[in-house]
Amino acid sequence: MRTEPKSRFTLFYGNSENDRIIFREKLKEFKNHWPDRLDVHHILSKGVDEDALFNGRITATKAKELLGRFITDALHKEFFICGPEQMMVNVSEALENMGVAKSHIHVELFSTPVATEIKKEAPSQSTGDFAGTATVKVIMDGREHILQVPANGDAVLDVALDAGLDVPFACKGAVCCTCKARVIEGQVEMDMNYALTDGEVADGYVLTCQTHPRSANVTIDYDQH
Fold it and tell me: 3-state class of 77 per DSSP?
């Protein structure tokens, strides 16, 4: 607020109950200090508000309704999402369906996610018919490592971890972008992608936790992250 005096902020804050809102008093203080620049809307999963929009979990439908009601100006907007994985997936999908560019959507992992049943078609380098075991060269910290990765088996990240490589990762849910690397040879496909922009995918970047080979030889460079 102090470093961007011309910016306005709208916070949609999901919690279970009113008494469990973290930083509730601090948010009130901020709102009182910057009444024309900060809006705070609480959505409670166990809420009993007369307006049903503020009750329940933040789903894709609810996110779209909240944005449609409270974010109506034509100013440049950046969206920052933090929370459980499924909520971030819901809000990201709602924003993309409303035409928001991926480059304007920023996510931060709140907790280690569990596997989600929701699948999203992601752009990929190829969706070829390769179904064998690929030779995948992994470049990391200037060193090359050779892995054998089945096309229809574990993702590249999991195979690398099983081989003892210290590859970076955090969520394994296509959200945090920690496992980002660049494909410099071969063809691959991602199961899901909630972190990379279309431009990054076009430049060859992948989330290795979601990546499977689609050609006999693939080279992935973690140093180009």
Answer: coil
Q: What is the arithmetic mean of pLDDT over 44-59? A: 90
Tokens of 27: 């948010």
Which residues lie closer than 8 Å to 133 by C-beta, 6 or more apart? 148, 149, 150, 151
Of the candidates 209, 20, 198, the residue with the CA atom closest to the CA atom of residue 104: 198
- Pair 149, 132: CB distance under 8 Å: no
Q: 219 - beta bridge partners?
A: 137, 185
Over residues 104-146, the pLDDT tens digits come to 988 876 544 433 333 333 434 445 578 899 999 999 999 999 9
Domains of the chain as residue ranges with CATH: 9-109 (3.40.50.80), 133-221 (3.10.20.30)
Is 0.70 topped by the overall pTM?
Answer: no
Cα distance between residue 3 and residue 26, in whole Å: 18
Q: What is the spatial distance between Cα 86 and Cα 113, in angstroms, rounded to a whole number?
A: 8
